[in-house]
Amino acid sequence: MPDNRSDRFAGKSVLVTGASQGIGEGIALAFAEQGARVALNGRKEDKLRAVQEKLPRVSGGDHPIAAGDMSKEDDVDRIMKESLEAFGGLDVLVCNAGIMIPSPSEDVTLEDFNKVLAVNLTSVMLCSRAALKYWRAHDKTGTIIVNSSVHQQIPKPQYLGYSASKGAVGNVVRTLALEYARFGIRVNAVAPGAIVTPMNDAWVHDPKQHEAVSRHIPMRRPGESREIADVVTFLASEDASYITGQTIFVDGGLTLYADFEQNWSS
Ligand code: NAD
Question: Which positions make up the signal peptide (predicted)?
Answer without folding.
Answer: none
